[in-house]
Each structure stands twice: as structure tokens, then as C-alpha cells.
Amino acid sequence: MTRDHHPTGSRVTMQQVAAEAGVSVSTVSKVINGRYGVSSDTFDHVTEIVSRLGYEASLVARSLRNSRTNVLGVLVADFEPFSTEVLKGAADAIRGTGFELVAYSAGGRVDEHVGWERRYLSRVMGTLVDGAVLVTPTVTDVQYDGPIVAVDPHTGRSSLPTVTADNLQGARLGVDHLLGLGHRRIGMVTGRPDLVSARLRERGFREAHAAAGVPLDESLLRLGAFEQDQAGDAARELLALPDPPTAIFAANDLSAIAALEVAAELGISVPEQLSVVGFDNIPDSALSSPPLTTVQQPIRQMGHDAIAMLVQMIAGEELAETHVTLETTLVRRRSTAAPGGTP
Amino acid sequence: MTRDHHPTGSRVTMQQVAAEAGVSVSTVSKVINGRYGVSSDTFDHVTEIVSRLGYEASLVARSLRNSRTNVLGVLVADFEPFSTEVLKGAADAIRGTGFELVAYSAGGRVDEHVGWERRYLSRVMGTLVDGAVLVTPTVTDVQYDGPIVAVDPHTGRSSLPTVTADNLQGARLGVDHLLGLGHRRIGMVTGRPDLVSARLRERGFREAHAAAGVPLDESLLRLGAFEQDQAGDAARELLALPDPPTAIFAANDLSAIAALEVAAELGISVPEQLSVVGFDNIPDSALSSPPLTTVQQPIRQMGHDAIAMLVQMIAGEELAETHVTLETTLVRRRSTAAPGGTP
DNA sequence: GGTCGCGTGGAAAACGTTATCGACAACGAT
DNA sequence: ATCGTTGTCGATAACGTTTTCCACGCGACC
Lengths: 343, 343
Fold this sequence. Notes:
homodimer; alpha/beta; 434 Repressor (Amino-terminal Domain); Rossmann fold; 3 domains; six-stranded parallel beta sheet; 11 helices; 41% helix; 16% strand; DNA-binding
């Protein structure tokens, strides 16, 4: 089956194909790229030789010649659940575009080496890819003039095109759910205040209260800092209050799960005595006990759209909107119920 | 935002640096690569110009000239937990080697498009990377003469260098644990029989029994096929038996978690009435209820070693061993206890 | 004062492709 | 016959590097 062709010592080059077929390299090139100007006889003949020799064009040489690599890069801070989900969406969107997709990881070293992305972008991306998607929350200020789309950039607004989830609306969704269930004292474990996403979620929390005409107790807002330990502490403080909340809205699933654990530890049953809502809908949230009710971000979709935008930009088309925000949805699982105890 | 970023951002070329510095391109090249034969005066002068112009060498042109890209690729079937963990290990091992790391994903389409890897390897890998790590369980028969290392190739032995976990020893570990706890009727949910890893785990299961002198009831062996649904069904059958097992050893964590769910569904409490041991130690296994006792594979280490081997191969060194197998360890959590019920 | 060596710098040929453009034949129309 | 036309095909110049190799100037050494 695997017919061993010629002494394929190294790589078969166009020259060799041309020599074998008795034509010029120009002709071979035309055949390969389906250009007009070659008779069907020679076309067939050349394709025959090409497949017999197992010839594959050197993408490097081609890139050099065309100053296009036909490769799109996704730059992630680390391969955590969020980025990998984005990657899946991106991998999905890439097919049929004629581009290849590669992923680069900072290996979680982002905090240590600030400016990592800058260096990387100019070094690698600048020459090996035609465009890039950034999934590096903290850094979006890069000096690389190629097409770039940022996904979920937590830090303040950037000049780049972006794709984000609607954090404000998502928070409204989560808190409205709690409010609708009858909760009137809702605690919130907020995220790092320097991230816009966290601020938007907090704002949604406030707006939901305002819209429902429910007064807000400021002492019920705690900083969870997107870190699981601190989130646990925040939940602990909340539950130790003389008049503890009947529900907790966490800025992200990790914090929510931490809250769940603290509740279990304190012997508080969820959802009977305490309701918990998360944000993100990471895969783990379906496996917590009880399974977490949470606000889902369309992460895959975000990766998908980012690639689609990139492709458009490269094609030279104008983007309909440079800042795309995608709707979130509420995933109801078993961590929420009415304050009484009945779900 | 500057409007004039051309299709591919017009980069500074070596020519321009040379012109600006009043020297020849050869000299600039020598300076860039630190070659001998340039006076320290001109060296300083050129480096000055280089940084002023923000010049970065075109990796494409460089790759074409030296037929090396200095990029290593990791080819994954999909971005699931296992592969991403391998990727982290790889990203870790890559630093300091002078290579860059890129990841390619089949986008989970491996089953549909058999032979995907073959095409991809010859097309992309053959020309864009200097070597590749394969994390594509089912296919390892590729015709790409570059350096390749396969990680955890489930399918039969391949001629490629490989890195795998010691599945046999791992299964021994898990089953010995159960046996040591006092269990005498242990069920096993096995994996797809066409995968060597699954067969080795089953063999470890048998050997552990033999070593302990505990007779083995063949009716307690069920095919779980590495699929969560089928694993659930297998567990259900096992537990519906007139004389059900007091413990289940699952061929992987996904199956084990499925078994946990089935037990919960049937009102069987874990670990009081049933002990469950998994294999892999995926992140989710720590979050199941109860947290899963499981056999941990050093997945990161596998990625790390694969890259290290690749680098060695490219350097032309001989590999100490072409088939590396790494030790597994038992992670005791709360899904196992003595048959009576006391942990 | 001629060679020899040595320290510098540059010219030019690759690497494998693609696009441009001209050569050449065959052929119908004037 | 001449002239354009059409249809094939091949030379050739890039693309941006790196790497020989060669030229030049200048001390040093007999």
C-alpha cells in the first residue's frame, strides 16, 4: 500500500518534479496552483508525476514569495479551560477559510514576564502568521501592526477589535434569577476590581437590585479576587454575618465552587439554606455538588467570531462592528432554590 | 491606529538596516547572528540602528535559507484535558532550547477523517516544523521522515519513539489499594480492547488478583469503551448483579465518574457501600462527589519528556531509550474505603 | 621594500516558490 | 503572403536571509 517512491532522501522539490516531467518549474507551479495557461495533457502528466513523487510545496518558500503564511495564530496565556474552549471555537471557524491555525502559549508565565506578548508578537507572530487572536487577559497593548483580535480583554478598553461576553447582561441574568426566586439578601463575591469584566458584573448586580426595587446591603459585597482561596474567605465572612445572605452571586465559577465548599464545611446545605450562582459555566461547574447554577459565556462562539473577524480583516473588508459582545445565558442547575427551601 | 498597515505589515528588512547604517547586508547579518569578523565599532553602530528601527529578522526567510524553522509542533486530536496537560509540560520543556512551540489540533475530527494526521504531517509539519509530538491516540503510522515522538499511543506498538505511563503498574497500584482495603469482589469497567493501554490496565487488574491470591470472577469484567454512557451502563449492570461487587476499578476517570453517578442514582452510597477507583487523575476527578481515588499519570512529565527527546533527536544524539514509560502514583481521595464502610 | 598574514567588509550565490513577460507555434482572417 | 490571435510554455526576477569566498588595507617580518 505504501508504495515507496524515489529515494526520498530529503524533500522533493519543484525542480525535481519539473525535471522528471520534462517541463519547466513555471509549468509545475501553474499546475500546482491551478493557474490558467497549461494544456490538459501536460496538466495530467505533471499531476501524475507530482503524486508519484509525493511532492508537497514548501510552505516556507511559498510564504517568503507571497509574504503571506496562510496561518492564523491564537496566543493564550495558558492552556486553562477558558482558552482551550476558545481554541476549539477557533479551530472550528478556521476550516474552509484556507488558513491553518496554530496556538502559542505563554506557559502561564504572563505575570512574571510582563511584556511577554509584545516580544512574542513582534518576533513570531510578525513573521510566521498573518494575524493573531489574543486570549491573554491582562495585556492587549501590543505593537504589531498586523491584524489582531482580542478575546475577553479584561483590562480597560483597547484600540483593538474585541470579542467579549456581555458581562453586564449576564450578571443581570444571574441576579434576576435569584431575585425571582424570592431572595432579598444576596451576597456577592466580586472579582479583581482592575478588570472591567469584574466591574461590569458588579454593576449588573447593582442594576438588578435597582430594577427590582430591592435595597442593597453594601456589607454583602466582598472581594474574591478571582482566586479560589480568597473567594472562600469572602464566602466565609459573608456566612458568618449576624444576618447572613440567603444567596451568593459569585463573580466566577471558581469562586462559586469555593463558596459551595465553604458552605458544606459549615454545614449549610445548598440549595435549601443557601443558593449559589456562578459565572462562566466552566466544565467543572457541572460536577460540583450540587451542580452549579451559573451564567454561561458562549466561549466557543467567542473563539469562532474572533477568527471570523480576523479573516475579514485580512481580506480587507470592513468589520460591521469592531467590538462584538455576545449574549450570555443562564444555566439552571441545582445550587439555587427559593429561600424557603423548595426548589 | 495607523492606517497604513499593509496586507502584511511592511516590515523592516535587512536591506533597510544596511542602508541606514551605511554597511552591507552581510555585515548586518553577521551582527545579528553574532558572527566573528566585524569590528566592535561597526557592531555597536549596527545594533544601534537595529534597535532604533525595531528590526526583527524574518523567520520565514531564515527558515528557507537554513532548512530549519526552529519550531516544534505538538499535534493533538483535540484540546481535551489530557492533551492540554501534555501541552503544558511541552511548553515547559521548550524554554531554553531555542525552539518555539506550536500546537495543532485536529478539532476532534480524527474519527471522521482517518488519515488526517498523515496529510497534516506531510503538509504542515513537513515544512513548518523541525519535529513533532503526536498526541493522537489512534494514529501513529505516519510517513514523515522528520523526528517524531508519540505520547501515549494507544494503538499497538509503533516504530516511533514513545512516552507512555506505566499502565500495568498503575492498574496494580489501584487494584492493590482495593485489595488491601479488604475488597474481594472487585468489578472492572474496561476500556476499548483495541487500545493497548486498556489491555494493560486489564492485565494489571488480573495480575493484582493473582498476586494477592484472590480469585477473579470473570462476570465482573465489563466493557466501558472509554465512553461515558457505555461506562455508566456497564456499572449499572455490575451493580444489578445478584452478588454485586463491593468495589469498581474503572479504566479511566470518565468511566469512574459515570459509575459514581450511577451509584448515586441507585441510592448506593460511596464509599460506604461501594468503593470506586479511577485512572488518569483528570482535574474533574477531584471535584466529583465524593472526590475520586484514582491512579495518576504524570501527564505533564510526559509532554516534557517528549519534547526533550525530540530536541535530542534533532541534535543528532542517540536516545538512551526510545520507549520511555513513566511511573504512576495512587491519589487517595474519598471514593474508597473498606468493604464494611469505615474508611 | 616586498611578502605574508590578519582584521574587516562586501559581492554573490544559494534556499524553493510564484508572477511577469516574452518566445514560439499554429491558425484563421484579411 | 501578411498580420493578428490564441494557446502553451519557459526564462527570469524577485521574496529576505545566511554563508562562502574574495578584495582590500595595513601593520609586521625578514
